[in-house]
Amino acid sequence: MIATAAPSATASAATTPRAGVRVRVRVRSSDATARAVVEAKLISAGLRPAETPDPFPQDVLVAVGDTVEAAIGVIRPGLPDGREQLLVVADVLSRHGALQALRAGARAMVLSAEATPERLAATIHSAHRGEGRLSHLALARLLDETPEPAGPGRRPGTPTLTGRQLEVLRLMADGHGNEAIAATLRCSKHTVKNVIYELMGQLQVRNRAHAVAHAVRTGLI
Predict the structure, then answer these.
(1) Sign (positive or negative) of CA dihedral 163, 169, 171, 176
(2) Is the CB of residue 41 less than 8 Å from the CB of residue 115?
(3) Less packed terminus of the chain by CB within 10 Å, N or C?
(4) Mean pLDDT across the chain, nearest whole number?
C-alpha cells in the first residue's frame, strides 16, 4: 500500500508536500499501543502506513520507542541495506541516544510530546527528500547537556554529569519529588522525568534511593 500525502488544512506552504509526490511509510515499535498512536496520527495527516513488512527504496521507516535506543533496537536488523529513510519518535532523547540514532542513519528525531500529525507529516516528507530535521524541543534538550566540572571529592571513573543532572540529583537527595524539583528548576515535570531516566542509565542504578546513595559514595554530591 502506497501512502499519498494529502496536504493538511493547517500545513504551511513550507511543509505541504509537492503535488504528485508519493511517500510510503512503515511504522515499527515493540509497543503495540505506541505504534497505534503514531499510525493514527499519520492517517490523520493523510499518510496511510504500509501494511507490508518488505522495504522499498525511499521508504520512510518510523521507529517508535520510549527511548531512542529502544526505537533503534526494534528496527536495527533492517538497516544495513541503507535504502530506507529513518525517522525516530521517542519519549526520551539523550545525547547518547541521538548519537546512536545518527550512526544508524536517522534523518530525523521527534519527541513524542510534540509529535502532532502535522509535525510528523512535515518531518516524514523532509526525510523522504533526504533532509535532516531535529525538533526545537529535542535540540534544546541536547544543548542543555553541558558537562559540569568534577568536584574535588569525586572518585576517578565516576560518570560525568551535566549541570542539570547534578541539580536534579541534589534535590532528590534532599527528598524532593518530581513536582517540587520542576518548580525549583522552573521546568516541566516531563523534563525532570527525562533527566532522572538518564541519571539512572548513566549511574547504572535501580531507583532514586540507589541513585542518591551512589552519588554520595562516589563524591558526585
Answers:
(1) positive
(2) yes
(3) N
(4) 76
Q: For residue 99, what is its C-alpha cell? A: 548519537
DSSP the chain: -PEEP---TT--TTTSPPTT-EE-EEEEES-HHHHHHHHHHHHHTT-PPP------TT-EEEEEEEEHHHHHHHHGGG-TT--SEEEEEEEE--HHHHHHHHHTTEEEEEEGGG--HHHHHHHHHHHHTT--EE-HHHHHHHHT-PBPPPPTTPPTTPPP-BHHHHHHHHHHHTT--HHHHHHHHTS-HHHHHHHHHHHHHHHT-SSHHHHHHHHHHHT--
Asked whether 49 and 25 are in contact (CB, 8 A), the reply is yes
Per residue in 176-212, pLDDT (tens digit) is: 889 989 888 888 888 888 889 888 888 888 888 888 8
CA 105, 109, 115: angle at the middle one, nearest 5? Answer: 145
For residues 139 and 125, give the distance between their C-alpha atoms in angstroms, rounded to a whole number.
20
pTM of the model: 0.56
Phi-psi region for residue 63, left (φ > 0), alpha (ψ -120 to 50) or beta?
Answer: beta
Rounded to the nearest angstrom, the gap between the alpha carbon of residue 127 and the centroid of all alpha carbons in its chain is 16
Q: Tens digits of per-residue pLDDT, 145-188? A: 544 444 555 555 567 788 888 889 888 888 888 998 988 888 88
